[in-house]
Every structure is written in C-alpha cells, then in structure tokens.
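Quick question about two entries, pasted in order.
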Amino acid sequence: MKLLKSLFVLLALVCISNLQAQEEKRFKIHTVAFYNLENLFDTINDPTKYDEASPIMEMKANRGEVYKKKIKNMARVISNIGSDYANNSPAIIGVCEVENRQVLVDLVNDPLLLGKDYGIVHFDGPDRRSIDVALLYQKELFRPIEESSHELLIYDDVSRERVYTRDQLLVSGELDGDLIHILVNHWPSRSGGEARSRSKRVGAAKLNKRIIDSIQSKDPYAKIFTMGDLNDDPTNDSVKKVLKAKKDKEDVPLKGIYNPFEKMFTEKGYGTTAYRDAWSLFDQIMMTKPLLEDDYSSYRFWKAGIYNKAYLSNKRGRYEGYPFRSFADGGFTDGFSDHFPVYVYLIKEVNEEEEKTKG
C-alpha cells in the first residue's frame, strides 16, 4: 500500500513538473485569413468597367447608405476573425470580390479597423465582372518586400474565346521577421455547370502550381500560403491532382502542400458556402511543409478553422444556417457574405532574451 501511494505521489510530481515546463513556454499567435467579401462595389459607375451589373448599382435608391452599411459589416467580421486566440484581428487577410482599391481604403478606415493600420496590396485585374483579389496586412506585423500580379490565360472549351477572370496575387514579405509568401486566388466560377467549367479551374491550379514551383526552385524551404475562393472543394482535381495537396501532415513531402480543410470537408461535412441544401468548402488556405515543422523558433502552423459564428448565418426560413449574404432578390439584406471566412493560426515561441533586449 505504501509503495502504491509512493507511486501516485511520484506520478503527481511528474505531471506537475511537465505542466510547469509547458506553462513556462510562451507563444506569439498571429492569424492569417481569407474572406470573400461578396460584391464589395462602390456606388460610382465606372465607364471602363462592367460594374452596372453589381447588386448595389442595380438598386434604385439608398445606394450610399447601403454601401456604408456593407463596409461596416465587412469590417465587423474582419475585426473578429482570430480574436479567440490571437486577441487581435488577422495579421494578414486575403480578400476577393472587391471592385477597386478605393473600397479597400474605405474598409480599412472603418472605425473597427482603423486602429489596426492595415496596408493594402491590390492590382486592377481583367475580370469581366470587375472584381479583384487583394491582400490586407497590419503594417506593424507584416512588411511586404515584393508584390506581383499573375495573369490567368484560359479559354472557353466551346467558343475557344478567352475567359477574362481574376489574376493571382503574390505577396512576399516578413511576418514579424519571418519570410513568407502569400498567394491570393479567386478561381473561375462553376457557371455553366461543374463539369463544363472544370478545365478553367484546373488551368487556375496549374498557374498556381507554377508560381509555387518558381519560389521553391530558389528556396525549397520557403514558407508559402495559397489561399482563396477556389470554386472547388478540397477533393476536386484542381486541388488533389494539380496542386497534389495532402490532408495529412505526415504525407507532405518537402516541396508538397498541406490542406487542413480537406478533413473538415470529408470527415466533418463542414463548408463555407451552401447551394441547394449542399455545402461546399470552396474557401481554403493551404501551405508548404516548412510551416508544419515542430521547431517553433519561427512561425509554424497551429490550427485552422472556419469563422462561422452565429451572427453570420441566416436565423430562419428556407436558408436557415446558410451564410447570411448581403444581397438577395434585388435588395440589401443587411447581411454579410454568401461565404464564411477561413483562417489559420501561426505560433512562434517567445525568445525571452530577445524580448528583454527589445524592452
């Protein structure tokens, strides 16, 4: 009995010691996110663009008030993403379905985001609907070094005419001293059906892969994120066969890609957008192997999630549980987007000596 009691005491001491050792480690946490802002257009008719067909331009009255509310709603969501653990809005967030740079300027100057001092990376693209991708970043946390826009040349399978769609944005820079590369995407839609439009998204994936390969040819250990509204699920050919994204971290080779959202989709049935009572997980953030290592002296991937808080969902009716979109039936709903945002947390062990030096 005494021996058993002694073993229990020893086990308790070991557990306490391990717990204290873990508690002594401190980590910095940053959020990297992506959000489809659903038709974030201004109220000005641009004669050089086909913006008249945007939901806000089709409204007959109160465009100015609707625009202000739409900006405020988007700012509210962005300000909340990542706050559960990082206690901050995203350090970096890719966005899509924005008309121009000015709507982004208005967004980052909303009172909910103004104090975060977000910078903007945006290029005007050739999309026929006049929607672009962009990157927002907190200037205190991320420093862009190089920015480039990559044209996607694809053609309709039937007419053989060029399909004017979104460019792919590449931004390389330092996140709190760590060099990372971020690709922001909005791949061609499923207009005309998934099968008929599949080749366009495969083409987008091939461009994405070429960009990633070009970075890795210079640095096989590059930390790369590719994110966006892919209009494909994690199991579709564009992601699985072209990007060769893996759902299990241990299966990712050195120059491979990990997709933390595949298990959410295949094993849990989660999605970011819904249509005809079926969920799709079109919005994804994938990453290269160097972000998966166990050495936390630099930033590594911790966990991923879909930001689907209750206020972002329809509360009742036919579309109960669906994302609470901004525009429907020709009017403004006071909603947010037809997509939920996605995010990943990055963690890095705090170097106590460096912190003392900085202090």
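Here is the second entry:
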Amino acid sequence: MGKTLFDKVWDSHVVRKLDDGPDVLFIDRHLVHEVTSPVAFLGLKNRNTGVLYPNRTFATADHNTPTINQHLPVQDPLSANQLKALESNAAEHGIIHWGLGHEKNGIVHVVGPEYGITQPGATIVCGDSHTSTHGAFGAIAFGIGTSEVEMVLATQCIMQPKPKKMRININGKLEFGVTPKDVALFIISKLSTSGATGYFVEYAGQTFEQMSMEGRMTVCNLSIEMGARGGMIAPDEKTFEYVKGREFTPSGAGWDKAMKYWESLKTDPDAVFDKELTFEASEIEPMITYGTNPGMGLGVSKNIPVSDKKLSGAASYKKSLDYMDFHEGEAMLGKPVDFVFIGSCTNGRIEDFRAFASIVKGRKKADNITAWLVPGSHKVEKAIKEEGILDILTEAGFELREPGCSACLAMNDDKVPAGKYAVSTSNRNFEGRQGPGSRTLLASPLLAAAAAVTGCVTDPRTLMAKN
C-alpha cells in the first residue's frame, strides 16, 4: 500500500516508537515568540539544561508588539517584560532573535516562509496554534504547549501520537470574487470546529493547485479552526520557486539534494486516508461569519440559519447570536460595521493588501469605520510602499500601521471596544477574542475592504470590475 504525503514526512522523522504510546518525533525547525517561551526557558534554567540545537530555533516578537511608535518603549509592563525576556533568553542560548525594530521582525508565521526557514518536508513547531500555516509548503507543522516548547528546546524532539489522515479535495476554478480565505471558511462551515479533530489534513485538487503560495498559507493556517492537528499541501513548482534563493534555503549542491527529496513529497496513488471529503469550487461564494466560532459562517448573500429548537445545540446557538445581537433569518448584507482589520498570520501578506487595495482604489473610507491595516512583517510593509499600494490606501483615507499580530487577539493595544462590530481578516471570532465584549465577523481581505468603504457588510463582487 502506498503512503500519503503526511506519512512520508512523519515517518522519516520518527526517532523512536513507544509501545502503546506516542512517537518521538525529530523537529527540524522550532519557532518561538515572546508569549509561550519565557516559562519554557525558565524550565531549562531550573534544570540546568541548555538548548540542544540553537541553529534550529528562531525567535521573533509579534503577539505583544504595538503597531504604532515601535521606536518608543512599550508601555504595557507585562508586554515589555515578555519582549525583554525573549531578547535575553535568545542571547543567552545563541538563538537568532528578530525583536522590535529589527528589519526582519514580524509575525512568526509570516517571517518563517519569507526567509526560507519554512521548507518542504520539514517538521516545524511553535508555541502557537496557527503553526499549521507552514503546511502550505508540504511541511508537517503544528502548535505546541509551553512544556513542549521546553522539550523541543532541550532535546529537539517531541512526543506525539500520530494523527489520523484526512484528505479534502476541491476541484474547479474559484468563482469571481472568491478567495482562499473563503475556501477555508467554507470548509470549516461544512465540517464545524470539531469536524477534523484527531486528523492531519491534506488539501488536494485543482482549486489548491491553482492557488498562490500565499493563498495556500491562508488555507493551512485555518486548519486548526476545524479541530485538525494541522494541514498540508503537496509541494510543486510554485513551492520550489517560492523558497528558492531565500536566506535559509539550501543553495548549490544542497539545493539539488533538497530538490531530490522535495520532488518525492506527494501522496502515492494507492494511498488510503482514514477520511476523505470532496467539494466543488463552484459551491463557494464570499464568506462571512455570524457567530462566535469560525464554523458559524455562510455565504455573504445568505441569511442567518434558523435552528431546530429541539436539537441539543439550540441553547448555545441562541447564546452565540445573543452575544452578537443577531437574529435567526436575518440577512448579513447591510449589517453595520464599526471596525475593519486586515492583518494577522492569516491575511497579513502582500497578496492580501493587493486585494484590499483593489477594492478601495478610487473610493474613500466610510466615516463610521475605524480601520487597522497591519502588515505581517517589515518585508510586507516595504512591498506595500514600493508597489504604490500605500499611495492608494492613503488617498482613500487609510493609514498603515507597523508589523505585529495586532487586533487578531486582545494581547496588545489594538482592541475592539465592547459591543462594536469588526470585520476581521484574522482567524478567530470567539467571545472577546479582539477585546472584551467585541463582536468579530471573519472574512476575506476583499470583503473587509468592501465593508471599509461602505460602512456595512457588503458583497465585494458588487464593487469589483470583471476582467
């Protein structure tokens, strides 16, 4: 029987199989940031243990970083202490550190691919659930807890039970105005937030093959939101072209050797998955969430579903709608919006800002909208300026902020006030995720831009010119 892509990468990294227990898995790349690493480094200190392979660990500050005036001292004491701890721990253990003010600083899941740290066939972990982003390159990437961060720092290995395998196929070309973010939200709406629990997902089919690498990163990023351990896409020529020539990518003979391995990373025709699902691209339209988990999503032209009051989940469904102050049967189109956020490890890349700018060009920001436009890295920020996107944004009344996680989560200064609605290109819409009492509507950069210029939930297709 043939092997899946997941099997090939996982099995090649197993150091030891424990009887009736987890596998001991070797980790190629370990990404750390300021939130989940301080306690892990303290654990090393208490056990008088160092970092085994400092050259396989990369540190960047992102969650707690302010997105304005980054040249000034960080005001929040907890944030400042965590940022300082990351800097000192990295220096003590000889780890590459891209802190605030560093030209390579940015969101960990944005800068990893940008600098070639992320590579096909690698195992990648980070103390952050959206590590699944890196699976877009044919890597096995997943988030880990603080104690596991300590384990990887000390041993470069982790103990993990091998997940089951799922393949999600989508065939056909995406319709006008439909983006990779919509594809991911569509899948989650079909599977629910627990539909892939216990699985590692491979995305396959024409739709994913046609996506850019940035689009694939968005899809894999959201794998965790349907309960999956991670998601991955087989590497192809787009993948190889993307990683070639980057700072930490092999070169010369090393590149040739790597390519020989990378080109083998595809699921064998006779491989068997534990579960397999198939959808058509034509089923997908621009998506938006209406509730308090990413699975509560629908096409923007649809109405909020009416629940069956007899079902066991009816009470929690009502609670979710009450929190959002929405009602069953209501249309999403036209609902007023207060904030728009474009950024995060889901949609903070240059392709996302190009999409946003394509809508706002020649228009003006709605007066009722507060907009936070936050690039995922300084490299993205530079491209926004060099490509003339900043001029378009400025002319439309928007301001560009500095790189960081920003309003993805209420862990820095960018918090949505209680009761306010935010159309957000990030990944989670839980109660209070963007600030205590805030109400989040997850959507693509195109739909976020449409809301930003109209002041309400708007189908982006109505503002787009068909070529």
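Reply: The chain has two domains: 5-275, 288-463. The domain at 5-275 is CATH 3.30.499.10 (Aconitase; domain 3). Hope that helps.
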